[in-house]
Every structure is written in C-alpha cells, then in structure tokens.
Write a structure and sequence with these properties.
With about 350 residues, the protein is of the alpha/beta class. It has helices at about 10-20, 45-60, 80-90, 115-130, 150, 170-180, 205-210; strands at about 5-10, 25-35, 65-70, 95-100, 185-190, 195-200, 220-225, 225, 235-245, 250-255, 255, 265, 270-275, 280-290, 305-315, 320-330, 335-345. It is built from seven helices and 17 strands. It has a four-stranded parallel beta sheet with strand order 1-2-3-4, with helices on both faces.
Amino acid sequence: MRHIVLAGAGHGGWETLASNQEKIPEVQGILVLGPTFKTDICPAGTDKAFVNGAEQFGQANSLPTFWVEGRANNPVSETVWRAMVGMYSHKKDHLSLVDLSTTPSGYYTFLGYGQAFPYWSVKADEFLKHLSLPSGLKDAAYVEPIIKKNEAESLAKIDDIQALPDQSDKAIQAYKEFLKKPFPRAFAIGENGTATAWSERDPARHALETCSTHSKSCHLYAYNDRVLWKSRLPADTQVYHVRVDPKGDISLFLTSLKPDCSVDFLPKIRVVKQPLHGTLTIWPDIIGTPHYTAPSPLARCNKATHGSSAQYRPAAGYRGKDTMLMERQVGVKNPHYQSIILNIDVL
C-alpha cells in the first residue's frame, strides 16, 4: 500500500496529528476533523497544551493536511482552535482549512449531522484529488444531496403542502406526518406511494428502499428542512399509446383501491380535449379490472371491481391517428387532477 491517508476526529484527530511524527513513508496526507477533546489532565492547562501541541506537530510535519473546525459545541473556544491552526501551519501552504464556524449552525459535530456534509465533503474530495488519490462520492444515497444555492432558491418551502407532486390524500397525510419527525429525516415519493424514514444513520437510503418495495420511480422529495424535488412526478402526466380497429373501441378503466382491495373512491374524469375523429364516452360507475403492476402491493387486486371509464370509438370509416386529453381525480379531501393523454392509431 503506497497511498495512505491518516484521518481522525476529536481525540482521534489529535492522535492523527501526533502519529505523523513517526514519518511513515506511505502516508500521503492527513485529514483531521476537529482535533480537540475535553480534558483536565494537562499540567499547563488544556488551552495552552493544545496550542503548544499543535505547534510541535506542525514543526514535525510537512504533509498536506486537511483540517475541519467549527464553532457550535466545540470543547475549546474559537480563539484556541484558530491559534492551534496558526501554530500548526507556520504560514506554510500544506494546510487546507475548512472553517465551519461561518455556516448557519456553526457545525462542530459535523460527522453526526447529514446537513453538515456538503460544507466539507466536497472540499475533502478536492483535497484527495489534488494528491492523486481516489476521490468522489461512492454512494450518493448515504449522504444528504448537495444543493447549490441557486437551485435551493427555486425549490418549494418545506411546509408547502401544495407543492407536493402527489396530491392524493394518502401522500398529503404521509407528508404531514413526515414534517413532525425529528432530524435526520427523509421523504421519498414514487408512482404508487411514499415512504418516510427518520432518526437513523441513513434515512435517505432507508426511505428510498422502503418506497421501492411498493412503488416504481422513487425519488427523494425532502431531506430534513429542505425540498429537493425540482420537477413533477414522471407519472403525473400519463401518456398512453394504443391501437384500435376501425370498427372497434378502446376503454381506459380507472379506480382507487384500499390496501385490502376494496374501493376507496371512484375517480371523476374530466374531458379537456375531445378527439377529432371519434367519440369519447365517460362512464362514472362501471365494473372493470384494474391493471396495477409490481412492485405495487395492489397488483394482487387486479380483479373485477367498481371504477370509472373513458371509452373511445373511432368515426365510421376513419383510419389514422387521433388524440384526446383528460384529467382524472386523485384524492378526495384535496382536489387534484392528473392529466392523461390518449394517443390512438386507428388501423
């Protein structure tokens, strides 16, 4: 092994600074994440001992060093840790400092909060890349998605229920429950449902995995106090391409079922654009068979039940293309309609 990086946080960060005095030739760089800790055993006083120790380690070290510090809940004062950084670096260019005291929360325990990762992880990758060492995020689901400032300004507020892509009653209720959860928390949305995870090491991954067990196209909508979603669900506008015999017809059956396969409500269908070469008939209550697909748990409910239907019949003698636009009701308590485009080839 010829490319080693020593890294540590807190007391481990202090040991990392000290260990390099051994001059291990394979070590290419040092990462120290808040190299301070609480102690009262230093005879010269903790603050003075930290500063003197940092000077000693700095004199013995010329390796590139990545140092992260913050203000909130730091066991030493900002004056002390800044003095440590100054004595360690000795005005050399081998030190890269990430000052988290300028962030909104002044993070010190930045390894324990996902929202602190973007402030230092990208710079850590740049540090490693500069040393020709492996860098870059290996698992994006493990840390909070990084949001650029201009992107964050265009997203919805965390408590804006109307911005939720899925306006069904279940999704809205699930999101309201999500807003009550403590940090860290994550909310994922898919075509057939949502998922929430909180107060664990990796809520983003857990929410996405849970969502994927019962829904397709799962994406992270919100993390902690930020909305990450930038567009509507791909399924928010459904497009169907179908073929129909000139003397036949085609029907689109819609229903909303509960987990036990019983009918939740019959979706209303609104016609936005009538077909030009045929007739469209709406049946508000009809018996039909839904076509849920895995991994939706409702896939087992594909049997005859009540629902609403839109039936298209081409004009006599017409062959060619036709199209129409409809809207289906999604939810009862919160009126919301999903667009449906039906493209038809009459062959």
